[in-house]
Design goal:
The protein is mostly beta strands. Helices cover 8% and strands 32% of the residues. The protein has a single domain, classed as Neuraminidase (6 Propeller). α2 packs antiparallel against α3. The chain is globular, with a radius of gyration of 21 Å. The protein starts with 39 loop residues before the first helix and ends with a strand.
């Protein structure tokens, strides 16, 4: 969800000053040319009042209603989260923040012992990041494609306006950009278009001399030579992916198996909880295993509402993990997003149950036989945190305690009060499994008025002692490193 580059005057309007203390943000991007910051008087207006004026009376109804979390965010984090009874409301909880971007010189707050700097600025809604063996960095500058049948009617209109306030309304650049740090200074000094003319690209993976890109509707394969700064070859389709006119969860991520034989691709659902009918969910809410040579594929795991981050944990053999965004509209305390090891043939509940065998009565007709074999995830990441990026490593190159474990980019909530996410966290791993509580890596994505200066998405280790973080509201690639002594 992007607005303007941090190098430019941010487009802003004072909205939603609702405070948060567990890592949350309030984004807002308005169409049209860059606008100066709102006056001090405007910033003193209650956020929901200003947002309602911008969005209209129907939005006022949404912004003024809903419930509030009764549990601390930490209760929904870890291997055994608390799962209170669902809370059904006539109007879903909506608690958004305006996207304003970073003022000159501003940056996220790193944890003690860490430092952060802008690796690249002026990007166009950077969502995902991939590091090539030679250290070149590929960034997917992308956003949702047209989805004419996704959430039609008044509700859909209001939600699109709300997501626009959150910074998600910009058109997709449909390209992959290459960033190169030639002198290893921690800042990219070369920035060039690597691939263009794509269709809402997201996932990137290299196997040998072949580069694979997951557009929203297909995996494409391109020839690659180490060190090249642009691919002009048209490439070829390896396999089609579910898309269509709804395409509710449009991102398709990729990771290659350690032996290079397979690609694993994450495919989100076509709805929140099956409200569009189960027929449109065919081949969705699952992870595919794709033969990297032939394109033949099979469902590797199912019942995953919106799997996004993909990574292999170290071990013998390495294990596939995913970060999953769970369902909405069961209250601010439900359902925790999570990361989990992915079992071949495993079913993880969606839409009929959540977090194992907790039945969701909204999914009809019920499927008790499926629910009976639903697998509970390994590790909860907090309700509505929008945990998207995932990078698991045995040795990050960062100082303790950030050495061996999982880095998670939490994009942030729109439907929890108070908000959650809007930070990058680290979860320690031992023997290929989570072994402790999360530790903040980057925070401060909200300003003092509760507006979103940035929203972290994809994360990747650069192999040079740094963690790269794509920030799609700040239009920046951040690099986290050890603080100088």
């Amino acid at each position: 969800m992007a607005i303007q580059s941090s190098r430019k005057a941010p487009r802003t309007i004072a909205v939603d000053q609702h405070r948060q203390h567990d890592g949350a943000v309030r984004p807002r991007a308005m169409p049209g040319p860059a606008r100066p910051r709102a006056t001090t008087h405007a910033k003193q207006l209650p956020a929901r009042v200003v947002a309602a004026v911008m969005l209209g009376g129907a939005a006022l109804l949404l912004l003024g209603c809903g419930e509030t979390a009764t549990l601390p965010l930490a209760a929904g984090i870890g291997p055994d989260p608390r799962l209170p009874p669902p809370r059904h409301t006539l109007i879903p909880t909506v608690d958004i923040a305006p996207a304003v971007g970073w003022s000159d010189g501003a940056r996220p707050d790193p944890a003690p012992g860490l430092a952060v700097a802008a690796f690249a600025t002026g990007l166009a809604h950077p969502r995902n990041v991939y590091v090539l063996p030679n250290g070149d960095v590929l960034v997917a500058e992308t956003n949702a494609p047209p989805k004419p049948d996704d959430s039609p009617g008044l509700r859909g209109f209001i939600m699109r306006r709300i997501m626009g306030v959150a910074g998600a309304g910009v058109p997709s650049a449909n390209r992959i950009t290459l960033l190169r740090d030639t002198n290893r200074a921690g800042v990219a000094d070369i920035k060039t278009t690597f691939l263009e003319g794509l269709h809402s690209p997201f996932g990137i993976a290299l196997i040998g001399d072949q580069l694979f890109v997951a557009d929203t509707d297909a995996i494409r394969r391109y020839p690659y030579l180490a060190g090249q700064t642009r691919i002009a070859a048209p490439g070829e389709q390896l396999t089609a992916l579910p898309a269509g006119r709804i395409n509710h969860h449009w991102t398709k991520n990729l990771v290659a198996s350690p032996d290079g034989r397979f690609l694993y691709v994450s495919i989100g659902s076509n709805s929140n909880v099956g409200e569009n009918g189960l027929a449109v969910e065919e081949d969705r809410a699952q992870i595919w295993e794709v033969d990297a040579r032939t394109g033949q594929h099979r469902a590797y795991a199912t019942g995953l509402r919106n799997p996004n981050g993909l990574s292999f944990s170290p071990g013998a053999p390495p294990g596939l993990w995913t970060a999953v965004n769970e369902r909405d509209e069961l209250g601010s305390d439900l359902v925790p997003d999570y990361m989990t090891s992915v079992r071949d043939g495993g079913f993880y509940g969606w839409p009929f149950s959540y977090y194992g065998q907790h039945v969701d009565a909204r999914a009809q007709p019920p499927r008790p036989a499926l629910v009976a074999r639903a697998i509970a995830p390994d590790y909860a990441l907090g309700a509505h945190t929008a945990s998207l990026g995932l990078a698991i490593t045995p040795n990050s190159g960062l100082p303790m305690p950030f050495v061996a474990g999982a880095f998670v980019g939490q994009h942030g909530s729109w439907n929890r009060r108070p908000p959650s996410g809007y930070r990058v966290i680290f979860v320690p791993f031992t023997d290929g499994k989570p072994s402790g509580q999360p530790v903040d890596v980057l925070t401060g994505f909200l300003d003092a008025q509760g507006q979103a200066r940035g929203r972290p998405v994809g994360v990747a280790l650069d192999g040079r002692g740094g963690l790269l973080v794509a920030d799609d509201v700040g239009n920046t690639m951040w690099r986290v490193s050890g603080a100088p002594p």
